[in-house]
Amino acid sequence: MRLGAHGGAQEYGGNVLGLADEYTVPLYSQAEAARIIGEPANTVRNWARGYAYRTTEGPKTALSLITVAAQPFSQLSVPFVGLAEAYVIAAFKKAGVPMQRIRPAVEAIRTEMGTAEALLSERLKTDGSEVLFDYVVDDGMSSSGLAVVRNKQGVIREVVNDYLQTISYANGLVESFRPIRYGGTVFVDPRINSGRPSFVETGVRIIDVENRVAAGEPLDEVADDYDLDPREIRHVIDAGRAA
Predict the structure, then answer these.
(1) CB-based burial, 84-110: b 16+ in 10 Å, e otherwise
(2) Domain ranges of the chain
(3) Distance (Å, rounded) from C-alpha 232 to C-alpha 113?
(4) How would you class 206 by CB atoms within 10 Å of its CB: exposed for 0-12, middle for 13-18, buried for 19 or more?
(5) Is the pTM of this model over 0.85?
(6) pLDDT value, residue 99
């Protein structure tokens, strides 16, 4: 199966990145993806579709940044790779990097290095103000160090921000992540529970717990059934409502 992002972004597929089908098959609607990463639905839609805007120099177009299938907004159109890309963008934003620097940085990596999986790469970092990339010299063996993508100026590795520590990698690409807003108590992995956000401690889907609490069942009883801390459940539910 081959997926394409709207607006000219890179196409991805299991054969392209060497990923299993669960990483590339659509699992989420764009609205659901927005809830998982804690971003407004319209923001994620713009990342998926791109958008046009006017400037003093005339109309311009912002290309899409994340991988989606050609489906309506309300239907399943976002694979895990697209969700992971959106999460990385959200992590950069939360680290203080403005979109005016994120977008050209990603486009530069894709164009200059032919790195289709730019947003999924373990080599992508941030120092809180710029997007950094761990460039590799031509021999493919040694690294030339982190550099600011927009101008290739070298920076010190120690300034890499901790926000991306919530992401787990395999073979240099995003494998799973723990959404920042849940404080490390929730993980998203396409190989487990069809990619639905789940509690780290037990692997129980958040939606199953939320539905029982919403139905009026006492929080302590639900927590006991799933072997979870009631305070952890309350924190996750509150974080979901805030999003």
Answers:
(1) bbbbbbbbbbbbebeeebbbebbbbbb
(2) 2-200
(3) 43
(4) buried
(5) no
(6) 86
